[in-house]
Amino acid sequence: MTLRYISYYRVSTHRQGQSGLGLEAQRAATVAFLGSTGSELIAEFTEVESGKRANRPELAAAIKACRDGGAILLIAKLDRLARNVHFISGLLESGVKFTAIDMPNADRFMLHVYAAMAEEEARRISERTKAALAAAKARGVALGENGVLLAAQHKATADDFAREVGPRILAMHDNDGLSYRAIAENLNRSKLGSFGGKAWHSTSVYRVATRFRGIAA
């Protein structure tokens, strides 16, 4: 009996959705998977999200289609999504069968573990943030409205830069297999400055990649 799949793709920004960056890689992985298993793809759903983790209407539609058609949900790229508590909850509560191409051994138990780890990490980040603010206050650093506003503005600017350059870095790292050092050399040759306007190094490339992955999750 031929297995029937419904694929769920996800890109993190409207710019990525329009350019196809990341989406084509997910589709290529899906085609390769279907070809290797002799399975049938009956529908596709693509989620285009902002950096703010909003509701996922396309995921809900894909899950409903799986229920209605007796199909299996096929997720091309689960790795970062598996660290998102809301995504995990929705997937587990749906009760539909699913297959993750990039995490073929993922099952309901593993997702429960990922959810617990994500919640624990969020708690630790909150504690570290509070401790850092308390230490800064003890050193006499202004933490009033202006200080908070400046910090928020800096974060927003850094996030925007990560959204702009992050997809390019991940494409070179994940798709082309380049090291962060090699990526830094490529970016320097292209005359694109780092977030601070200076030359790229492996550490600055890694930071932007990490920030973008966090935003995109």
UniProtKB/TrEMBL annotation:
Keyword field contains DNA-binding: yes
Record key words, sorted: DNA recombination, DNA-binding
Domain of life per record: Bacteria
Lipid metabolism keyword on record: no
Species of origin: Gemmobacter caeni
Protein's recorded name: DNA invertase Pin-like site-specific DNA recombinase
Chain ranges of the Resolvase/invertase-type recombinase catalytic domain: 4-140
Gene Ontology molecular function, alphabetical: DNA binding; DNA strand exchange activity
InterPro entries referenced in this protein's UniProt entry, alphabetically: Resolv_N, Resolvase-like_N_sf, SSR_resolvase
